[in-house]
Amino acid sequence: MIINILNLSRKVTESELKKLFEAHGEVESCDLIMDKKTGESKGFAFIAMPDDKQAQAAIKALHETKVKGERIRVKASNKSE
Known about the structure:
CATH class: Alpha Beta
Structural class: alpha+beta
Oligomer: single chain
Shape: globular
Number of strands: 6
CATH architecture: 2-Layer Sandwich
């Protein structure tokens, strides 16, 4: 399942984000979206988790939690794998 993470602090790194989700199961990939001109985070990311039950648990556990001062939004993405 692909998970969409929104409202990320621009200070969150890809490795920190991956570690956050790995607490809930296997993470296949983590894609923090970066601005090509500035090299800074755009404040959103995609996480791929192969096990749907683990992905749903991560969504439930992490949605509306604060990460580096920002309340993140976590939901299943409509982005195809």
